[in-house]
Amino acid sequence: MSGVDTRLQPRRRGLTRRQKRRLSQSAQYVLFVAAVIAFAVSADWGRLKNQFAQWDIAKEMFPDVITLALKNTVLYTVSGFVVGLALGMLIALMRLSSVGPYRWLAGVYIEIFRGLPALLIFIFIGVAVPLAFPGTEIVGGTYGKVALALGLVAAAYMAETIRAGIQAVPKGQMEAARSLGFSSARAMVSIIIPQAFRIILPPLTNELVLLFKDSSLVLFLGVTLEERELSKYGRDLASTTANSTPILVAGLCYLLVTIPLGFVVRRMEAKAQEAVK
């Protein structure tokens, strides 16, 4: 028998796909650890501590940073969310309406307020409205202005979220309700909208987190000392003390709210995915 027995030749074996993936992940971890070590070694921690971590300054911020600044931030956020949810529901129903002008008006509103920065909306509420309607006061003073400004911005996003949730409900639900004698309006309120809200609850909660951060724009409305929110409160103290510790403390207060809310959003999204499966 001529030729070389191939069984005696060494086989060339490369890395498997799983091994390549593990190797790539290991390389990424090594690079990340190296970057963290390089940052830790090169940073001047003494200067950072002097500028951002003065315990005496941070201690003087309590309890006002909680009882005043954080409280106002939460009030601004909740009021803006309520206004945005109510207006967003109306805009969403207009988008789904069979009446053409309603759909057109809703579409124009969404495109305008989704395209404009929130800062411009605050300036418009604080400057343009008083100029256009002299002597007119928005109910609630600063709190009412913030609720309106945040609500106008949030409504554009919530409207599209609510519309998508309503359209995600199977059409058979409406047909079954009509066959039981429900009117279209009653079926929408009693059956369709409750099911839609179970679908859109995670993105609505995420919108609440975004509004919580956007509440910092209240400073453009001109607030009193008692109406300051976290960002304004931190900046004022930073200017007074010539130190950035108040800004760091204000940022940590934001995280006290946004991190738990983010966890809630992830849990709701996971439960929604399990329900679909």
TrEMBL record:
Residues 70-265 form the ABC transmembrane type-1 domain. InterPro entries: AA_ABC_transptr_permease_3TM (IPR010065), ArtM/GltK/GlnP/TcyL/YhdX-like (IPR043429), MetI-like (IPR000515), MetI-like_sf (IPR035906). NCBIfam families: HEQRo_perm_3TM. This is Amino acid ABC transporter permease. It comes from the Bacteria. PROSITE patterns: ABC_TM1. Residues 1-20 are annotated as: Disordered. Pfam families: BPD_transp_1 (PF00528). The lineage of its organism: Bacteria, Bacillati, Actinomycetota, Actinomycetes, Kitasatosporales. Keywords: Amino-acid transport, Cell membrane, Membrane, Transmembrane, Transmembrane helix, Transport. SUPFAM superfamilies: MetI-like (SSF161098). It is found in: Cell membrane. PANTHER family: GLUTAMINE TRANSPORT SYSTEM PERMEASE PROTEIN GLNP (PTHR30614:SF20), MEMBRANE COMPONENT OF AMINO ACID ABC TRANSPORTER (PTHR30614). Residues 9-20 have a biased composition (Basic residues). Belongs to the binding-protein-dependent transport system permease family. HisMQ subfamily. It is a multi-pass membrane protein. The chain crosses the membrane at residues 27-45, 74-96, 108-132, 138-159, 180-201, 247-265.
